[in-house]
Amino acid sequence: MPELPEVEVTLRGITKPLLHHRIKKVTLGTHKLRLPLDPKLATLEGAEIDSMQRRAKYIVIKTSQGSVILHLGMTGHLRVRDDFEGLLKHDHFAVTTEEGLSVVLNDMRRFGLVKFVAPGDDPLEDKVFQGMGPEPFSEDFNPRYLYQTLQKRSLAVKVALLDSKVVVGIGNIYASEVLFETGIDPRRRADSLTEDECGKLCLQIKDILQRSIQKGGTTIRDFSGADGKPGYFVQNLKVYGKPGEPCPACGTPIERIEQGQRHTFFCPVCQK
DNA sequence: AGTGGCACCTGTGTGC
DNA sequence: TGCACACAGGTGCCAC
Question: Which of the two residues, A230 and A265, has the higher pLDDT score?
Answer without folding.
Answer: A265
